[in-house]
Amino acid sequence: MLRLIQLELQKLWLNKASRVLIIISFILPFTVLILSSIKINFFGFFTLELGELGIFNFPIIWHITTFFAAQFKFFFAIVVVSMIGNEYSNKTLKQNLIDGLSKKEFILSKFYTIVFFSLCATILIGLATFFIGMYYSSYTEAAIIFREVDFLLAYFVKLVGFFSLCLFLGMLVKRSAFALGFLFILFISESIIYGLMKWRIDGEIADKIHNFFPLQSMWNLINQPIQRIVMTKFPDKVDMAYDYALHGYEVAIVLGWTAIFVLLSYQLLKKRDL
């Protein structure tokens, strides 16, 4: 496994565009650090400091940071589809197979790299969240600090699932731009199908089916925290209550899609004439 990861890291680091995108994909999620220190002066009347609003308190901070950090996953998604496109355009895929790398090892090298980068991103976001929380939070009890740390698991699974989808699309079309275009088409298709289901069948059943769709299932891992933030400021608004917790079946659905995408990528490579 380590040999395959080292092989991929060497390829990515030698490519200038991939190197820049990897650096950006790791730096941008840390804009939450900047947000936590922002002070907005309203014409001298008062100063608003985001860190003092309580949104960086434990345990809600785990929810907020992982949700917003996940929005920057598209930068590494470009890296994933590019590392497939480059294999075909530079003919390194054929050369790797000639040099003794099996097709299974080729796909595994891509997947291991996806897991490696997802794990690194999760650890960095986890550390950043912990230190921001320790600085701003009024809660210091360990039980409260680590109460919702499972959002880190959701973040990790979400990245692995999304990048595995990008791996499959990269293998399917062999071109980075087309793969990203297919990703957008998939998003639109899910929305259209969901809308048609809401129109033709019971809304509750449509919602349950929709939750099994690839992109929607990944979204469900970390629900938007805006509504929850408002609820903390206005606890009497019970009509705004919603289920934001991570559930085991949500993780299972995304892991299922991850396995499907990796297996489909392998099957495409096995049947394709190189």
Structure write-up:
With 274 residues, the protein is mostly helical. The mean pLDDT is 83. The chain has one domain. It has helices spanning 2-14, 16-27, 31-37, 60-70, 73-89, 92-98, 103-136, 142-145, 150-173, 176-200, 203-210, 214-221, 226-233, 248-271, and strands at 39-42, 46-49.
Q: What are the main properties of this structure?
A:
274 residues
Approximately how much helix is present in the residues? over 70%
How would a textbook summarize the main sheet? Answer: 2 strands, antiparallel
- Taken together, the total number of domains comes to 1
- Radius of gyration, in Å, reads 21 Å
Describe the strand arrangement of the main beta sheet, using strand numbers: 1-2
Distance between the termini: 24 Å
Poorly predicted runs: none
Strand content: under 5%
The number of helical elements comes to 14
Transmembrane segments: 20-40, 60-84, 111-132, 152-170, 177-197, 249-269
GO molecular function: ABC-type transporter activity
Organism: Winogradskyella arenosi
Pfam families: ABC2_membrane_2 (PF12679)
